[in-house]
Amino acid sequence: MPHNTPACPQCTLENTYPDGDHFICPDCSFEWPQQEGSEDAQADEASKVVRDANGNPLADGDAAILIKDLKVKGASSVLKKGSKVKGIRLVDGPDGHNVDCKTDLGSLLLKSEFLKKA
Ligand SMILES: [Zn+2]
């Protein structure tokens, strides 16, 4: 079996051993929880990736282009297809609105499915 017990985070010695769901350092008696499920956490992270209409991942600071006209609540005008939005910020907004961005009509929450990475 490979030795995959991490070094003690407190004293950095490596005589550590697992005990239940914790690791224990016999040198300084430090105990700390084993990091189980870190792969699950990564999977969670991956599933939260916000993708544009073409399935490309979007990131904070990206610029994007609208792929359809969007009516804006409270505004008399429409965000036109082809409008460019800059400096997007990924958010967890209501109704699947997951992109906060600056548009010609001000700062708005949009859905990534109506955007195409510029
Ligand atoms: Zn230690």
Q: What can you see in these coordinates?
A:
By secondary structure, this protein is mainly beta. It has two domains: 1-48, N-terminal domain of TfIIb (Single Sheet); 64-117, SH3 type barrels (Roll). The chain is 8% helix and 31% strand. The protein contains one helix and ten strands, in the order E-E-E-H-E-E-E-E-E-E-E. The strands form three sheets. Strands 9-8-7-4-10 form a five-stranded antiparallel sheet, with no helix packed on it. A three-stranded antiparallel sheet has the order 1-2-3, with no helix packed on it. The radius of gyration is 23 Å and the shape is rod-shaped. The N and C termini lie far apart (49 Å). The model has no long low-confidence stretch (mean pLDDT 86). Zinc ion binds next to loops.
Can you describe this structure in just a few lines?
By secondary structure, the protein is mainly beta. Helix content is 8%, strand content 31%. Residues 8, 10-11, 13, 25, 27-28, 30 line the site of zinc ion.
Question: What descriptors fit this protein?
Answer:
1 helix, SH3 type barrels, binds zinc ion, 2 domains, 3-stranded antiparallel sheet, 118 residues, 5-stranded antiparallel sheet, mainly beta, N-terminal domain of TfIIb, rod-shaped
